[in-house]
Amino acid sequence: MIKKIIFSALVLTALTHISWAQTKLKAGVWRGALHTASANQIPFNFEVTNTGNKQELAIINSSEHFKVTDITAKGDSVFIKMPLFESEFRLKQEGDNLKGQFIKHLGDRDVPMGFTATAGTPWRFFEAPAKTAYNVSGRWLAIMGDSTGRDTTVGEFKQAGQKVTGTFLTTTGDYRFLEGTVSGDSLYLSCFDGGHAYLFSAKIADDNTITGGKFFSGLTGKDVWVATRNQNAKLPDAYSLSALKPGYKKLAFTFKDLNGKAVSLTDARFNNKVVIVQVMGSWCPNCMDETAYMVNYYKKYQSRGVEVLGLAYERTTDFTKSQKALAQVKARFDVKYPVLITGYTSNKAETAKSLPALTSVVGFPTTIIIDKKGDVRKIHTGFNGPGTGEHYTEFISEFEKLTEDLLAEK
């Protein structure tokens, strides 16, 4: 009987390894492409690695390698679940190719995009881009949109050979790690992080002018853009975009944490503490960048009298769905501070309604800094993440200097 059990176990193990061997992805760098409704492709690269009898992949955007471990296969089907943003890939494998859908699960619907990928393909836009005389390195004043709706941003790019990396800074955050190329007189940039997919293309008219820009976002989003080289380009002060209404000094709210327990700013744990309130959502890549920073900030300052509190505004008012999404965030970043489910959606008007002391909520994330007396001292809109380079390090320096000053107050 024991021999039969051992034999059965060996057979099962062998079949498991055979099944995996038949369905595993080829190790190395792949080129993936998301297909928009307007028949454009948003390309990105990812690297597949073997770890024991499992596989992992890392989505590559410039210096960021976004790790994904939830990969399962059955027959010729491959399922890849993203660790954040409630999204996944459902694919068929055909040799060294993948074909299928990338699906974003929103609060009230699913949004699928066509997807294809090819193994052994390290290039992003062109295997051999056309030679160019242009170098776009530097700072640019970029205008997104047309006359009916314009948004002033700041583009910052670094070009090495024909490879370009960089981002666009906006009043509500940044476009994270963009990567692409200059080919002839054309510029191409893209990014995919599981939550957002971006494609920028444009013509380089001369050393100081980028024109005819097109911007594609996700399945259906599209806009136009232009840019002029301007080393002095800057955005409004992030601390000037939102404020308390006249007559208010304090913030008041009561929301439930992920376990259903009510939490208020008046709770004893926040008394005589510097409190950082993070207005965020699990769907927001800039919020995830801020969360990654806040986790380390909390480790550094909690013992000195700082508390951090996340207020989550999700795609849905459904507590259980929000709870599931935020549990993934807490696990991914090992968040030790409380994250509360507000029950309001990410609609900015809804967000402002939930915090009536504020004049407005301009964007996600918004960070509210409260002193030891419980008074709101500053409100910061947006977050310059690691994709912004020196702006990220400057923010950390300024933010922690403000923390030190508030801790020193009696």
TrEMBL record:
One term under GO cellular component: cell envelope
GO molecular function: oxidoreductase activity
One Pfam family from the record: Redoxin
GO biological process: one example: cytochrome complex assembly
Domain Thioredoxin intervals: 244-401
Subcellular location as annotated: Cell envelope
Annotated source species: Mucilaginibacter terrigena
Official protein name in the record: TlpA family protein disulfide reductase
Segment forming the signal sequence: 1-21
Lineage: Bacteria, Pseudomonadati, Bacteroidota, Sphingobacteriia, Sphingobacteriales
Key words of the record: Cytochrome c-type biogenesis, Disulfide bond, Redox-active center, Signal
Disulfide bond in keyword set: yes
Keyword field contains Signal: yes
